[in-house]
Every structure is written in structure tokens, then in C-alpha cells.
Amino acid sequence: MDVFSSPNRDAAAYPIQALFVPFPFVCFTLALATDIAFWQSNNLMWQNFSAWLLFAGLVVGAVSILAGLMDLMRPRTRPLRPAFGSILLYLVILALAVANSLVHAGDGWTAVVPYGLLLSAVTVFLSLVAAAVSARKYARLAWRV
């Protein structure tokens, strides 16, 4: 069974960044859900949840950027790195999340409605676009032999 232990296979390398990238997407999606819950219920607990979810997503997003830079230095993971468009989308998503976090730092209703809710929705939409763009590249790499 030399197939699985061959040092020449690029597919045997696993990018470290892939461990961290999904976490911010989940946090930003849950922040949108808690923003909607705040909009419907006006309970400040949901605003606090949104602020903490945005913070957690930003921290792990920064860690994923560092892991991506480490993956660029590893020769075996270079073929598995995301395309330039995906990297640009990731950075735009994190910039929107920073702006959303600053909007959520306010007090009361205006901290979430309407701008915080809008920024959360745009962030989640761009996250879905980034996931679709990345999935196309990884699907092409999976069929490579």
C-alpha cells in the first residue's frame, strides 16, 4: 500500500488554514440569526450574543489568516491554497465583520437595527459566495490524480 504513504503526492498535505476557516463563517451566520432574534424580540441578550459571536469570528479569522500565511510557506500545501478571488473575499468578509462589530458596540436598538442587521446579512451572503468559489477549486483538485 504505497499509495497512501507516497511523499510525492500533493493531496497528502493538509492545509492548516482549513481547520480555522469554517469557524468564522459559523460565527457570522449565528450573529445574523441572533440579530434577527433581537429584531423580533427586542431582548438585549441577543445583542450581546451577536457581539460575542462577531468577536469570536474575528479572532479565529485572524488566526486563519496566520495559518494561511504558514500554508503559503509550506511547499506541499501550495497547490491546495485558495484562489486569489477567495482570499480577497475572505479579507472583505473580515473587514465587514470588523465594521459590524463596531456597529454592534452601540447601545440598544440602533446597535442592531437596521445597519447591524444589514451588515450581518451582507457578511453571510459573501461567506456563501466565498464558500462556493472555494468549493469549485477544491472539487477540481479532488479529481486530479
Structural description of this entry:
The protein has 145 residues and is mainly α. It is elongated and about 50 Å long. The protein has one domain (16-142). 28% of the residues are buried. The chain has five helices and no strands. The model has no long low-confidence stretch (mean pLDDT 86). Helix 3 runs antiparallel to helix 4.
Helix-strand layout with pairing:
Blueprint (H helix, E strand, L loop, with lengths): L16 H4 L1 H20 L2 H30 L10 H21 L10 H28 L3
How many β strands by DSSP?
0
| Largest pleated sheet | none
Structural class: mainly alpha
How many distinct domains? 1
* Weakly predicted, low-confidence segments: none
Strand content: under 5%
Radius of gyration: 18 Å
What sort of overall outline do the alpha carbons produce when their principal axes are compared? elongated
User: What is the chain-wise order of helices and strands?
Assistant: HHHHH
Distance between the terminal alpha carbons, to the nearest Å?
16 Å
The total of helices stands at 5
- The chain-level mean pLDDT equals 86
- Helical residue percent? over 70%
Give the structure's gist in a few sentences:
With 145 residues, this protein is mainly alpha-helical. The chain is 71% helix and 0% strand.
Question: Descriptors for this entry?
Answer:
145 residues, mainly alpha
